[in-house]
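Weekly puzzle thread! Below is a chain. First person to post its structure in token form gets bragging rights.
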Amino acid sequence: MNAPLSTVWAPQTPVNLRQTLRPLGRGALDPTLRWDGDGVWRALRTPAGTATLHLEVRGSAVEAAAWGDGAEWAIAGVPELLGHGDDQSGFDVSGNAFLHEAQRRLTGQRLLRTNLVLEAMLAAILEQKVTSKEARRAWSSLIRGHGDPAPGPAPEGMRVFPAPSTWRLVPSWDWHRAGVDPQRSRTALAAASVASGLERTLRFGRGGADVARGLRSVPGVGVWTAAETSQRAHGDPDSVSVGDYHLPAVVGLALVGRPVDDDGMLELLEPWRGHRQRVMRIIEGSGFRKPRFGPRMTIQDHRGH
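Winning reply:
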């Protein structure tokens, strides 16, 4: 086995790996991300090839090691992956007691930037209008069935996100077995067919109209999917996942004690325009949960159709 590339990154402020990388997790069976007692393993497909990245916090520094053809790219991306370059200037939640206390307790949470657009978009497409359980099952099934083994000493069973050309060759029955309906599979294939164009949206920075326009040029990708993508791939601090089944109620209950709709959510978040996704991450990281009442989204099983 080849020796890994490694580095030690010492951020100016502490980084909490679990809080920062939480948006990348797709459940306990996610073959691309695995937590262990020492840190986190991430299998990824970089522009230079496949890679396995291991991150571990030691004191105030982060130790990183990577294996595979994409190891150099993965190592170079560690600072941005863990929030370097995220500008928090002008962000102030002192006027809201809930957010102020939550932010105080989440000192190590940062907004990540993976610089991998297709990966983020495919995951979001699989989550369109289905439950988290369904989306995670689909992600695990497709990555395990079509992804490459993670290079280096990655934990057993870890797989790398498939290449665009591989996604385009996934047969219809594999989408079906994974519980992915024809509309989502068509959208995923459309995204894979323009993968290089999607990656070029990274040059527009951490979000904004140009990024959203580029992402939404894919048929089947709307406001929600574009927001979910830019939050992870671009590190967008402001994008809001409008159209989410649960999100408006969570925001309303956390900030004013009552559920709201999408318009109400946007109104509540308006004072923090430019940092609205940052507010969402604080609410999520605080552990706040919506009380379990009212109708739940029905799980759809397309495999028997």
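Puzzle host: Confirmed. Bonus trivia for everyone else. The first helix runs from residue 17 to 21.
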